[in-house]
Amino acid sequence: MANPTRWRVEEFRIEAGADSIHDRLYANWNMQVAVSITIKAVINIGGDDTPYQLTPEDLQTLQLVLKSQDPFPSSWACDTEENEFAHVMPSMARNEALHPKEQQSASTFSKRTYLTYWLRTGKVEWRDFIARIQEPDGNWVTTIDSGSGLYSSIRITGIPPAVYSSNNLDIAKSPVQDGTWVLKINGSPQDQDMYQTEYHVTLSNVQLQKVVCKNTDSLFAYSKKDARSILLYIWPSNNDTSTVTAGFEYGKPTARYYGKPKAQVVMDGKGISGPLHLTLLKFKNTLGVPELAHSGTGNFELWDIYGNSARFAAASTNEWKDIQVQLDR
Question: What is the superkingdom listed in this entry's lineage (predicted)?
C-alpha cells in the first residue's frame, strides 16, 4: 500500500460571486467577500487512484495568490474568519455555493474539502486571484494548472465606499417627558426636576450596523450660569429599560455642598430598535453651581451594514432646545 501522505491533487477550483467568477465589494477595509475553494486529492493504491481526505496538516500550504503570481498586494487582505459586516453588495444575488457547510452536507461527492476565505480591500481596483497548494513531493499546484480538473480564477473589484453626511440620517424625536432625578448631597437624596427627550437615529435606505462613541463615558454635560444643567447621553438601543449614571463632577467641595452628585436616569428603550439612540436631559438642581465646561465631545463613529463609516458629532444651534447631528470634521 502506498504511503497515504503521498497524495496528489485531482481536482482544484476557486469560486466567488453569483456567477462563481466575479464579485465586488466596497473598498473600505471592512467589507469582505467570500471565496470558496474546493479541493480533492487522491493516492495511488495498487495502481488505482483512491480518494484521499486531506488533513489540516496537508492544507497548511493552501494559499490565495494573485493570478499573475506577483506578491500579494498590501492593499488587500485575506482572512480566515468572517466579520460582522455584510458580504454581498446590495441587489446582488446570494450565491449558495459560497456556503461550504451547506454545500458539503448536500454533496454526493466523497473526500472533497471545502474551504472559505474572506477577501477585503482598501483600494478601488480589481484583482485576479487563484489558489495554490503544495503536494508532498514539493510540487505546487494551482487552480489554473491544466491538471487541476477545472481551470478557474476569480476577479474581485473594489468600488468606492459610500460617503455619508447628516443628510443621510433619519432622526425620530419623541415628545418631551417630565420627570425627576435623585441628587445625593452628603448621602441625603433629593428629588430634582428633569426634562427628557429621546432621539432615534438611523441611516436612510441602509441598515446601521454599529456605533462607537469617541468619548470615554458616552456623555457630556454643560451647566449654564442659571444652574440649569443639560446633558446629552449617547447609548446603544437594546429594546429594554436600563438605568445609567449621567452627570458631571463639580470639582472641589464647597461650603454649600459636599460630594460629587450624579444623575440616576432611567432610559426607556422599549420600542426602540437600532444601534444608536440619543437622550437630551435638562435638569434643575438646588446647588447654584458655577458654569462648567464640556466634559466630553459628543462625537461618535457609525458603520453601515457594508462597513462604510462616517464620524458625527451631536450638537445644538438653538441653546439646546433640540439636538442636531453634524459631520465631525
Answer: Eukaryota
